[in-house]
Write a structure and sequence with these properties.
One of its GO terms (cellular component) is endoplasmic reticulum membrane. This protein has 127 residues and is α+β, with helices and mostly antiparallel strands. It is built from one helix and nine strands.
């Protein structure tokens, strides 16, 4: 009985740490094409396959096109946010090449808690 309890506690700890990792604030600031971050800034093409570490990240294959809506700034400038079809998420900027720029002047705005929302099996997880 003690062994089963130990295994359940271990699974609970693993589950909790995965949940905490998937709600971590990635940056306090982001750059967008407009103050609401609704306009696409650019269109990029994947130069490599990418599989993100959790559900906040956009997965893609080499050659796929992605629309970029924001770029994290200051603490984590390597991550951009974009969409591919109905999928939306973060990805490393060095995994893509810019094909077309729609908005040249970027606006820096504070991130929101919802920017780091992880939708995993219809559960909404906030930090």
């Amino acid at each position: 009985m003690s062994r089963i309890l130990d295994q359940r506690i271990l699974l609970l700890v693993i589950s909790f740490s995965a949940s905490v990792q998937s709600t971590k604030v990635l940056s306090e600031w982001k750059k967008c094409g407009d103050p609401e971050c609704e306009k696409a800034m650019s269109r990029v093409q994947a130069t490599t396959d990418y599989l993100g570490p959790d559900c906040r990240y956009l997965n893609f294959k080499t050659g796929e096109e992605i629309m970029v809506y924001s770029k994290l700034s200051r603490e984590n400038e390597n991550l951009w946010t974009g969409s591919k079809g109905k999928d939306f998420g973060y990805f490393p900027r060095d995994a893509v090449k810019v094909e077309e720029v729609f908005i040249g002047k970027e606006v820096e705005v504070l991130t929101k808690e919802t920017d780091f929302l992880c939708l995993d099996e219809d559960k909404h997880v906030f930090e």
